[in-house]
Design goal:
Elements: E1 6-18, E2 21-32, E3 36-40, H1 47-55, E4 62-67, E5 70-73, H2 81-84, E6 86-89, H3 101-106, H4 114-124, H5 140-152, E7 158-162, H6 170-187, E8 191-195, H7 198-204, E9 207-212, E10 215-220, H8 222-227, H9 232-237, E11 242-249, E12 252-255, E13 258-261, E14 270-275, E15 280-284, E16 290-298, E17 301-308, E18 311-318, E19 328-333, E20 338-342
Helix pairs in contact: 4-5, 5-6
Bound molecules: adenosine-5'-diphosphate.
Adenosine-5'-diphosphate binds next to strand 2 and helix 1.
Length: 343
C-alpha cells in the first residue's frame, strides 16, 4: 500500500450503557491519511457508539483514541468535541431547517471570508445555484450533499458518516455513493463511513473494517477481506455462505463435496469450511447425488437450491443454465471461493 500514515488510532475502546452489555468491547481501529474506511456490522454491533466516541460525544470506560500523538480519549482524558475538528454527516443529515444551504455550510466556519468559502464548497458539490434554498426545498440527495459540504468546509481532521445513504432510494444511492467518494477524495479527507450494507461497504471502501459484538474482527482492502474472511462471522457479514464443520487431517478437510485444502491446521483441529454460493459447480448427471429443489433468476446469474450430500445448499450459477427444478446434479467445489478457518 502506498501512503498508510495513521491519522487516528483507536485501541481497546470500551463503552457500556448497561452493566451486562458492552456496546464497545475492546475495539481497535486505525484510520489512514486520505483513505476511506467503511465500518460494516449488523445492527447493534456498536458502530454508532464507536463513531460517537471518535466525535467526542461518548466517553470511553477503557482504551484510547489518539490523533497522531494527541490523546483525544483515555481514562484520564476527554477532549471536547468542538476541539477535535471532526466532521459529521448524520443519517438524517441534521441540517438546520431555518437556514439556507449556504448558511448551513458556513455555520462551522469563522473569519471574514466564511461565506465565500461556504459558497466554494457548495460549488464543488455542484450545488452553487441552490445556495439560497432551504432544506425543505432540497431533494434528499441534495440535502445529503449539503450535509457533506458542511462537514468538509472546516477542513476537518476526520469525517465520520453514519449510514449516509440509507434514507435514499436505490438508484439515487448508487449515484450519491460515487459523488461522496469523489468529494472525499478531492478533499483528501480521512473518512469513516458506517453502513450495515455489505455491497455498499465494499463499493466505497479503500479499507473495510468488520464489526461484531463491540469489536473490530477484521480489517483490510475489501476484496481481500471478501476473499479471505478470518471467521465464519466475518464471512457472513459480507454475504451468503454455507458453513461445514470439519476436522483437519493431513492438510485437508473433508466435506460432502470432496476434500478441500486445509494446510496449516493441525491434525484433528476443528475447522469451519466456508463456501460461497458461486463455489458450487453443478453438472447435469442422472446418477448425481443431489436434486435441484428451486431455481431462481437473478439477472446475470441464477440461484439453484439443491438437496443431497447431507443437507440443502444454495449455488450461484452463471446464466443461462439448462439446469431445472427436479434435475439431478453432481457437485464440485471451485477452491477459489472456499476458505477454511478455525471453528
Ligand atoms: P449499531 O450502530 O451498530 O447499530 P450501536 O452503537 O447503536 O450499534 O449500539 C450498540 C449497543 O449499544 C446496542 O446493544 C444498543 O442497544 C446499545 N446502545 C446504544 N446506544 C445506547 C444508549 N444511549 N443507551 C443504552 N444502550 C445503548
Amino acid at each position: 500500500m502506498a501512503d498508510v500514515r495513521t491519522v487516528l488510532s483507536i485501541r481497546g475502546a470500551e463503552r457500556r450503557y448497561r452493566a451486562d452489555h458492552a456496546a464497545l468491547a475492546g475495539a481497535d481501529l486505525d484510520l489512514h491519511a486520505g483513505r476511506i474506511t467503511a465500518l460494516l456490522g449488523p445492527s447493534g454491533s456498536g458502530k454508532s457508539t464507536l463513531l460517537r466516541a471518535i466525535a467526542g460525544l461518548e466517553r470511553l470506560e477503557a482504551g484510547s483514541i489518539c490523533l497522531g500523538e494527541t490523546v483525544w480519549n483515555d481514562t484520564a482524558t476527554h477532549v471536547a468535541p468542538e476541539t477535535r475538528r471532526v466532521g459529521m454527516v448524520f443519517q438524517d443529515y441534521a441540517l438546520f431547517p431555518h437556514m439556507t444551504a449556504l448558511a448551513n455550510v458556513a455555520f462551522g466556519l469563522t473569519g471574514p471570508d466564511k461565506t465565500t468559502r461556504a459558497q466554494a464548497q457548495l460549488e464543488a458539490a455542484e450545488l452553487g445555484p441552490r445556495a439560497r434554498a432551504y432544506p425543505h426545498e432540497l431533494s434528499g440527495g441534495e440535502q445529503q450533499r449539503v450535509a457533506l459540504a458542511r462537514a468538509l468546509a472546516p477542513e476537518p481532521t476526520v469525517v465520520l458518516l453514519d449510514e449516509p445513504f440509507s434514507g435514499l432510494d436505490r438508484r439515487l444511492r448508487g449515484e450519491l455513493r460515487e459523488r461522496t467518494v469523489d468529494a472525499l477524495r478531492a478533499a483528501g479527507t480521512t473518512a469513516l463511513i458506517v453502513t450495515h450494507d455489505a455491497e455498499e461497504a465494499m463499493a466505497v471502501a479503500d479499507e473495510l473494517a468488520l464489526m461484531d459484538n463491540g469489536k473490530i474482527i477484521q480489517t483490510g482492502p475489501p476484496d481481500e477481506v471478501w476473499m479471505s474472511p478470518v471467521s465464519a462471522t466475518a464471512a457472513k457479514l459480507l454475504g451468503d455462505v454455507e458453513i461445514i464443520e470439519a476436522q483437519a487431517k493431513a492438510g485437508q478437510a473433508e466435506t460432502p463435496f470432496g476434500p478441500v485444502d486445509a494446510h496449516g491446521f493441525e491434525d484433528g483441529e476443528a475447522v469451519s469450511v466456508l463456501i460461497r454460493p458461486r463455489a458450487f459447480t453443478l453438472s447435469l448427471d442422472p446418477d448425481g447425488p443431489c436434486t435441484i429443489t428451486r431455481r431462481r433468476s437473478a439477472g446475470p446469474h441464477l440461484t439453484h437450491r439443491f438437496a443431497g450430500a447431507g443437507g440443502e445448499w444454495t449455488a450461484q450459477t452463471p446464466a443461462p443454465s439448462p439446469i431445472r427444478e427436479g434435475d439431478r446434479v453432481s457437485v464440485e467445489l471451485d477452491p477459489v471461493y472456499v476458505r477454511v478457518v478455525v471453528a
